[in-house]
Structure formats: C-alpha cells, structure tokens
C-alpha cells in the first residue's frame, strides 16, 4: 500500500469512529462539541496544507471561512436558497476571493503575504461593522446588506428539526461528518499526490524546480484557491449548523485559536492539525471550569510547544517512533 493509501485507511478509521460515536454519546452538548471539532479540524488541516506544504504563510484563512458563512447566510436570507446548494456556493465564493487576493500578494515574500492577507481580512471586517446604509426596513429594523454588527440569524438549517425533532442534532452531526470526510480526503490527495510532490520540490530548491517547469507562483495560487474553497465550504456548513453568521468570525482570538491547532499538533505533518484541534478543544473545555481564560490557555500552549516541541506533538510522536524503530532494527 502506498503512502496515500495508508493515510486514506487512517482517515476511514477516523470517520468510522466518529460515525459510531453518537451511539456512545447521547448528550446533545457533547455531540455539539464534536461537531465544532470537525469544523475547526478542517480549517486547521487546510491551513496546514497552505502554510506547511505550499509555503504560503497566510493569515487570511478566517476571511475565507467568513466568506463561505456570509455567502450562505445572504443566499438564505435574501433568496431562500437551500443549504444543500449554498454550501458549495460558499466554497466557490471563498475560492474566488482567494484567487484575486492571491494574484495581488503571492509574488511577495512570506512576511508580506501574512501582513497583506491579515490587512485584507481586517479591512473586510471594518467595512461590515461600519456599514450604515439600509437596503430595507424589516419590521421597522434597518437591514444592512452584510448584516452590520449583528450579522445574520435564523438561517435555514438542514431541515432535520421536523424530521428528527428532539434529535435534530444527529442529522446535523452526520452532515458535518460528511463535509469533514470530503475535506480531509481532499487535503490528503493534495499532500500526498502530485501537488504535494510539486510543493516539496519547490520547497527543496525553487531554482531547480523552476528549471524542471514548476512555476512557484502558479502552484502557490492553486494551493491558495483550493484550500480557500474547502475553508469556505466548511464555513458555510458552520453557518447552517448554528443558523447564524456575524462579524465575530473575524475575531483575532478565533484566528489565534485555529492557528494554535496547527502549531500544537504539528505544522507540516499530515495528522498534526487534527490532533491539535482535538487537544485544543479539550483544553478549552477543561478551562471553562476555571473561568474565561481561553486566550491565556491558547497563548501558554503556543509558547510551550514552540519552545519545547518545535515540531508539535505529531512531530514528537514521529521522532519517538522513528527512534524506537531504529533501535529495534539494530537489536534485531
């Protein structure tokens, strides 16, 4: 079995485990937390594809996530578009935004890409919260095009409430699981397929890769657009599940939270971001019992991992297993 096949086997085992989890956990709150984990795991994994493998240090991933959520919310609010149609449209809108941003910034160096993508995200956030014009008055309330500071609520959901009634979250859970499986599979194909090979070649020697016909800007743009699509796609899923989308999606604390998943789990490791998402979710859940210290826990985790485990937890695990394998071969 090749490397991609092995990782697909791991993915299948993970998805199967998540599929049977509702049979073991019946509490709605815990199922909701697993749904949130799957959403953030997708964002973290595609951020890892972009930064860890394609070498594009972007701070605009939450912008693409918000693009998908807002696209879904606006389509539902203004045009009554079905969520099943809105999800891929949300991904497409995020990909289109990424394409134009990528054309402007991906020829720049790493630091400038990070600053420019963060600046664009902040600019969009500022335009939304300072929006003053009303496009209509619904019940005497000013309806702003992008929802203003309140955003959108009561978005059409997946439709499981009348079908499953009190167990509607099970329907949402399996839809999110399906989106998770699709998005993770796409990330695996990118990392361990021909695109991933091109990324590694460009990272090892840009000049040699260019001599072999690999255009650095083109491949970075492809990674930027593809990862933005799946980030926007899962953003639309999140908006449907929570039936809302607002400017809180742009919060710096949320950006830091998702970035910590990638760093803690292990940048440029296949499963590090998923492991990091699980660990950070559990850490914050434990932290809820001692007050609102979310940002403190995130910051402390980042400092400890960067100082003690630069490769993240998955990097540490791979190193330990590598040493054990080498020792067992020598002893054998």
Notes on the protein architecture:
This protein has helices spanning 3-24, 28-53, 61-79, 83-105, 110-129, 161-164, 168-192, 194-204, 206-211, 216-242, 252-265, 272-287, 294-308, 312-331, and strands spanning 136-138, 141-143, 152-153, 244-245. It contains 14 helices and 4 strands. The longest helix is centred in the last third of the chain and has 27 residues, at 216-242. It is globular and about 75 Å long. The mean pLDDT is 90. Helices cover 75% and strands 3% of the residues. Helix 11 (252-265) runs parallel beside helix 13 (294-308). The two termini are 24 Å apart. The chain is mainly alpha-helical. The protein has 2 domains: 3-250, no CATH class; 252-332, no CATH class. The strands form 2 sheets. A two-stranded antiparallel sheet has the order 1-2. This is Branched-chain amino acid ABC transporter permease. It comes from Lutimaribacter degradans.
For the residues shown, what is the average pLDDT?
90
Helix count, DSSP H or I runs of 4 or more residues: 14
**For the report, how would you describe the main beta sheet?**
2 strands, antiparallel
Q: pLDDT under 50 segments (min length 5)?
A: none
> Total number of β-strand segments?
4
Tally of domains? 2
Strand line-up across the major sheet: 1-2
Class from secondary-structure proportions: mainly alpha
Using only CA atoms, what is the Rg? 21 Å
Order of helices and strands: HHHHHEEEHHHHHEHHHH
Distance between the termini: 24 Å
The oligomeric state is single chain
Helix content: over 70%
């Amino acid at each position: 079995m090749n490397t991609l096949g092995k990782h697909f086997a791991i993915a299948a085992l993970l998805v199967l485990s998540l599929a049977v989890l509702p049979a073991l956990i019946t509490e709605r709150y815990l199922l909701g937390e697993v749904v949130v984990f799957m959403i953030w795991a997708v964002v973290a994994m595609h951020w890892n594809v972009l930064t860890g493998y394609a070498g594009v240090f972007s701070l605009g991933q939450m912008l693409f996530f918000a693009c998908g959520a807002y696209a879904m919310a606006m389509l539902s609010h203004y045009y009554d578009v079905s969520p099943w149609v809105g999800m891929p449209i949300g991904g497409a809108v995020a990909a289109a935004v990424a394409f134009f941003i990528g054309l402007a910034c991906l020829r720049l160096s790493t630091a400038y890409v990070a600053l420019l993508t963060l600046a664009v995200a902040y600019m969009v956030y500022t335009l939304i919260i300072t929006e003053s014009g009303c496009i209509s008055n619904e019940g005497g309330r000013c309806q702003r095009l992008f929802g203003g500071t309140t955003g959108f609520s009561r978005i059409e959901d997946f439709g499981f409430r009348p079908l499953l009634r009190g167990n509607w979250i099970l329907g949402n859970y399996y839809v999110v699981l399906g989106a998770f499986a699709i998005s993770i599979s796409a990330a695996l194909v990118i990392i361990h397929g021909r695109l991933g090979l091109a990324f590694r070649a460009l990272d090892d020697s840009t000049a040699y890769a260019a001599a072999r016909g690999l255009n650095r800007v083109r491949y970075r743009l492809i990674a930027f657009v593809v990862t933005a699509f799946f980030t926007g796609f899962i953003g639309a899923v999140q908006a449907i599940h929570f039936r809302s989308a607002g400017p809180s999606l742009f919060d710096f604390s949320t950006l830091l939270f998702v970035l910590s998943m990638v760093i803690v789990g292990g940048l440029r490791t296949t499963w590090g971001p998923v492991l990091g998402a699980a660990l950070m979710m559990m850490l914050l859940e434990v932290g809820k019992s001692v007050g609102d210290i979310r940002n403190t826990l995130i910051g402390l985790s980042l400092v400890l991992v960067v100082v003690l485990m630069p490769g993240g937890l998955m990097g540490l695990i791979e190193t330990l297993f590598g040493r054990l394998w080498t020792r067992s071969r020598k002893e054998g």
